[in-house]
């Protein structure tokens, strides 16, 4: 595996830490900025929406630019946004920096995915994507807890400074170790033809549904475990870290399996995720629920390399825009899942309803994946006939 891919994974570690650490910083941020916790929570929504919108816009805007320089520019904007955010005295300015950081993060994801595809041999692309997304997994295991710890003991602004420092390390790594690549003679019209392919929309739909399945339950694991299963509250961080360990195991195995059999990998991960969700929906035993969380982490992130690989295979000659589109699709799921889980809770169905919501979304994912598999077989038969 090229060292450059690991450098890109380090960069994703910084981006992912920033994206998810806000959850643990909300009380301190709300108090410091004199806003309510729900208002502070909108900083999370601002980042997610910025990712959904920013990915395709920046992919189009940077289409003809050299990729390494583009990556460096986006990391630079991300770092500056965190410096300004750390110094912000008001909520409005901090909100604006979160949107700008999200745009830079989305653009980086799109270009980093395309760069990884360019650097890694075709037969190892699943493993390359696993390394890249592994940065996000490590962010959830180490970066987010560390950011939360810093925020709780030294103020939320310290966490922003820490992300800035890690981002600058990533800048140095990209500058020194990532070779310059381009997509060849790319054209905007050629890349936009991506959206005329039904296979691409199916691949993106599977990504969004799968992520919604994951985050419908994951977003509410803490109250589900404590209120329904009787888990002591002080155990929750450890269980979430266990989910991260499962995610690391899953993405390592999923990267290798995706290179050989992407559809089989997705079916296997979805079946495992549905089994874990069913246990979480039915059990009231804390130890059983904790075991299910570990399995859920393995399944949730084990699917990630295959989801990305399927989208790139469907896109063919539009690597930059498909990278942006997958980024948007993941964040559509990240946004829709927690909302649907919250709707179920607000409807009075209790915390186990988030697991049932995840199951419903998982069944929808299986249906969409089956349609995609049928379409793929039809396309393969046409190629053999020709």
Automatic annotation (TrEMBL):
Keywords: Cell membrane, Membrane, Transmembrane, Transmembrane helix. NCBIfam families: cmx_cmrA (NF033135). SUPFAM superfamilies: MFS general substrate transporter. It holds the Pfam family MFS_1. It is a multi-pass membrane protein. It comes from Amycolatopsis plumensis. Residues 4-380 form the Major facilitator superfamily (MFS) profile domain. The keyword Ribonucleoprotein does not apply. PANTHER family: CHLORAMPHENICOL EFFLUX PUMP RV0191, PURINE EFFLUX PUMP PBUE. The chain crosses the membrane at residues 42-60, 72-94, 100-122, 129-147, 159-179, 200-223, 235-254, 266-299, 354-375. InterPro entries: MFS (IPR011701), MFS_dom (IPR020846), MFS_Efflux_Transporters (IPR050189), MFS_trans_sf (IPR036259). This is Cmx/CmrA family chloramphenicol efflux MFS transporter. It is found in: Cell membrane. The lineage of its organism: Bacteria, Bacillati, Actinomycetota, Actinomycetes, Pseudonocardiales.
